[in-house]
## 1
Amino acid sequence: MRKKQVSVFLIFVLLTFCAKDPELFPEYYFELNLIKKLTGSEAKNFVNRLHFNSITNEKNEIGFYSGIKGNAIIYITYYDNEITAIDNYKKMTEKISPDNSVFTNSSYIDISGRNIYRTFGMGQTHYVFTSSNKLFWISAEMQWAQDFLTEYLTILD
C-alpha cells in the first residue's frame, strides 16, 4: 500500500511542476473562430510566398481567425533560442520602413510590459514581438487590434 501512495504522490508532483504550454491558437478567441491553421512546410511556404522570397527555414505556424467583427492572423516563427528570436525581431523591424514597404506610422510601444513594434498597412494594425524563442506577427482590424493583442498577451504570461 505504501508504494501505491508514493507512486500517486510522485505523479501528482510531476503533473504539478510540468507546466503545459499555452494554446497559441485557440479555436475560439476574441469572438473570432480559428478557420484555418497552417503548420510545417505549408506555413513556411505561405510566409515565403507572402514575401516573394525565401526568408525562412524555421518552423512556422499561422492561424487565420474570422468572425462577425472581422479578421485577424497570428503568425509564429519558432527559433532555437530566445537570442535568435530577438535578433530576427530586430532585423524584421529594421526592414519595415515607409521607404520600401506598404507599412506606415511604425513605432515601438509598450503593452503589458512588452516592447512591441506596431505598424499600419493593408487596412490592419500589425504587431511584432517576441516571447521566449518565438517571434510573433499579429495582424488585426484597426478598430479592435490593440484589444485583441492585449488579451492575447495574457495567454503568453
## 2
Amino acid sequence: MKEFIENLKKISEKIYDQIGGTEERYIQAALSIEFDKLKIPHLRETSVQIYYDTSPIGMVELDFIISPHGDLKEYLIIEMKQASKIDDTNRHQLKSQLRSAPLNNHEIISKVTKGILLNFKKVEKYKEGANEVPEEKIDLEIWSYKDNKLILDEI
C-alpha cells in the first residue's frame, strides 16, 4: 500500500498545483485522469446502499473505489474533501460507508474494509497581490473499520 499512497500524494499535489481551489467535481475528474494514466483500477462516483442494522435505508455515492493492484492488496474507498482540514464529520461519513460496504451485495463493494480521507486544503492566503500556498497541500488519513469501530492506520 505504501507505493499506492506515495503515488496518490504525488498526483494529488500535482492536481492541487494546477486546479486546487476549484470545485470538488473537477478535482475528482482530474484524479480519475491521473489514475487512468497510472493504470490504477478504479470506479468513480459509485452508488452504494447505506444500512441501519441489516436493512438498507438509502443510497450514497462513493467518490472512488480502488481495486487491488501493485502493492495495494485490498479494495478501498477514497472520500475526497476540500476544506481547511479533515474533521470528525468527514470521519463519520467514511465510517458509515465502511460499515455498510460489506452489507452490499456487489462483489467489489462487499470486499471494502479500508478507506482514505483525501483533503485538498483550502487555506491559501492572498496578500499584496500574490497567494501563499500552504506547505502541506493535502491531508490524507487511512482508516479501517473493525468491530464497529473506525481505526486510524499508519501511513
## 3
Amino acid sequence: MKNHRLAALTATVSLAALLASGCSRKDQVVPAQPVPVVPATPVPTAQVVVAPPQPIVVDAPASWDAISGLTFEQRADFVAGVLRMEGQLDGQINVLKAKRATMTTDTKDWDFAMSGMSDARSYLQSMAAEVGAVTTPDTWNEEKEKVHQAWLKAQDAYDKVRTSTTN
C-alpha cells in the first residue's frame, strides 16, 4: 500500500508541477487558420513578333559629295560624314536582310552577292579608320581617295545584291 500511496503522491506532485509551469492564456498557441486556396489565373504568354529592321536615319545627308571637299583641318567633320555614310550602308544592309528573310526562291546568288557586300562594308570601315588616323596633311588627299573608292565599292556591292533578288 505504501507503494500505491507513493505512486499517487508522485503523480499528484508531477501534475501540480506540470500545471504550475504551464503557459498563461496569452502565451497559448492558436492553431493557424487555413489559407483559402485560390486557383491560379493563367498568365498570358507574349507572342514574339519579328519586324524587319528599319534603315538607320541620320541627321545630315550621307553622301560623298557632302564631304569630298573637306580639308585636313576639317578632318573631324570628314570622319563624322564617313560615319554617316556607314550608317546609310548599314540601313541598306538591314533592308536587304529583311528582304532575304522573305525570299522563297533559290538564294545562292543572293548569298554570294551579300558576302561581297559584307566585305565592302568592312573595307569601308578600315579606310575610315585609316583616314581618321592621319596626323599630317601630306597624305590627306590620298587617304580621302581611298575612302571614296571604298564607298563606291560598297555601293556597287549593294546594287549587285539588290538586283540579284528576284523576289
